[in-house]
Design goal:
This protein has two domains: about 240 residues, Alkaline Phosphatase, subunit A; about 180 residues, no CATH class. Helix content is about 40%, strand content about 20%. An eight-stranded mixed sheet has the order 9-10-11-19-12-13-14-17, sandwiched between helices. A six-stranded mixed sheet has the order 5-1-6-22-2-23, with helices on both faces. A hairpin with a 4-residue loop joins strand 13 and strand 14. The radius of gyration is 25 Å and the shape is globular.
């Protein structure tokens, strides 16, 4: 009997070890730039991405740009603030605009780029993403096997795919869906190949940084902004030298822009900007408070927002620019509004997931106070059929038949990002605001960031050793001579 029991225990232990080995898996995170929740949901309904869960809606940070989007998603896990809302940003210390939209991305041990095992970081690769985006996506996903098989012992990898955003801007919705269908088929083949080569199951997590609004666009030109400002004795400038100087930073041809001003005239300048045709919502900070403006063609609507930690108030001063009065009325009825008129951002998020301006207070407050080192004094969001931008890139887009849509604004269509996974053990919420959107993957994200930060530290150490060796070599050569 004892021998039989021992034999059974032996086989049982080996059986469970075998099962555990079989259950070991690797997770590939694929960050798809500019792919919206609504587009993925549409493709799921058509039978694409059938091995994935239903997409979970993510309301992205504002401005709904790549830098803001990924920084907001990853900041809860230790990622630092970005310099600005995109690669082109105003630097207060240098007192000038630095970088451009095709700048070579610079990794640091703490910024969001640390998260990626692969991203297009050079000027040329950035150019390709928007010049021939379909080719860019194909090349990027074909690099994935080399990344996976080069370190088979790792449990997670993260790859950034930027050409999806370029395709949306210049090729349109139909072509983006075609590109994503190609990605879906490729991932299915990759999963089988990975299993055959490593014996491990490959899970996927797809997520995006912001939404995308497919719509024919009208331009709000820099010259129009310049003209309106000059009518009120303000001037567009490269630097902030006087209280009448205004520095404009737009982030490509998209539905948002940032303005940098001296604090004394910020309210007046905001009112001037809000009256420009095509501008929808203007927000500005004054001290710790935020003001929202919206000119409806007849009167200026204005509201004040105050923050108390994770709680926000909304006080209409003229009209109701965000259409939030009814939101706060319902929050009060459900007992989710404090006596002083403040509501927790999570309650506001739950009440506004389908609102035209979802979670406006927290998103704009984070943009002014938490996301970047060089926050604007004024942030603008256009009406959906308009875009701010550079005339050169607008002209370039005309070679492809013109811009097919954009993102960047405060409104829902620009802000509806997504996440979904093939891992059936993970339950995603129907919707989440960006700080909690990736909670289900917290362990993987933290391990990935720690791995990449250690890798960067090691690279820096090696660089320092090489510099020191070169110094010693030069010193020895000088002594010899």
């Amino acid at each position: 009997m004892i021998i039989l029991f021992s034999t059974l225990c032996f086989f049982a232990s080996h059986f469970f070890s075998f099962v555990q080995a079989e259950e070991k898996s690797t997770t590939l995170f694929l960050a798809l730039d500019g792919v919206s929740f609504s587009l993925i949901k549409e493709m799921k309904a058509e039978g694409k991405f059938s091995s994935f869960s239903d997409p979970s809606l993510i309301i992205s940070p504002f401005p709904s740009t790549t830098t803001s989007g990924f920084t907001g998603l990853l900041k809860p896990y230790g990622v630092s603030k970005a310099s600005g809302y995109d690669e082109r940003s105003f630097d207060y210390t240098a007192n000038k605009v630095e970088g451009n939209l095709l700048s070579a991305y610079q990794k640091s041990p703490a910024n969001y780029l640390t998260f990626f095992d692969y991203n297009r970081h050079s000027f040329f690769s950035q150019f390709i993403m928007y010049a021939i985006p379909g080719f860019s996506v194909k090349r990027d996903i074909e690099r994935i096997p080399n990344i996976l098989f080069s370190e088979p012992e790792r449990d997670q990898f993260v790859v950034y795919i930027g050409g999806t955003d370029g395709a949306a801007h210049i090729l349109g919705k139909r072509r983006v869906k075609s590109i994503l269908s190609m990605v879906d088929k490729y991932l299915q083949r990759l999963q089988r190949r990975y299993k055959k080569k490593t014996g491990k199951h490959l899970e996927f997590v797809l997520f995006s940084d912001h939404g995308f609004d497919f719509k024919p666009l009208k331009a709000i030109s820099t010259s129009k902004i310049k003209h309106h400002l000059e009518k009120h004795q303000f001037k567009l400038s490269e630097h902030l030298l006087s209280e009448n100087d205004v520095v404009l930073v737009h982030w490509g041809n998209i539905s948002g822009a940032s303005f940098y001003t001296k604090p004394d005239k910020v309210g007046t300048i905001s009112e001037v900007l809000s009256r420009i045709s095509g501008v929808d919502i203007v927000s500005y900070k004054k001290g710790n408070d935020i003001f929202f403006l919206r000119f409806d063609g007849r009167q200026m609507q204005k509201a004040q927002v105050r923050a108390d930690g994770d709680y926000f108030s909304y006080v209409p001063l003229l009209g109701d620019p965000l259409s939030y009065q009814s939101v706060y009325t319902e929050l009060k009825k459900s007992g989710k509004l404090r006596a002083d008129g403040f509501a927790h951002w999570k309650h506001i998020a739950n009440a506004t997931f389908s609102h035209q301006y979802p979670s406006a207070q927290k998103r704009v407050h984070d943009a002014f106070f938490k996301l970047v080192d060089n926050p604007a004094t004024i942030l603008c969001s256009t009406k959906q059929e308009f875009e701010f931008g550079d005339s050169v890139t607008r002209l370039t887009a005309k070679l492809h038949g013109g811009l097919k849509g954009t993102h960047g604004g405060l409104f829902w269509d620009a802000s509806n990002a997504f996440v979904m996974t093939t891992d059936a053990s993970i339950q995603l919420p129907d919707a989440a605001l960006y700080p909690t959107a990736l909670t289900a993957f917290a362990k993987d994200i933290e391990e990935q960031l720690e791995y990449q930060q250690e890798k960067l530290r090691e690279e820096k150490k090696q660089e320092e050793l090489m510099v020191e060796e070169k110094k010693q070599k030069n010193y020895g050569s000088a002594v010899t001579h």
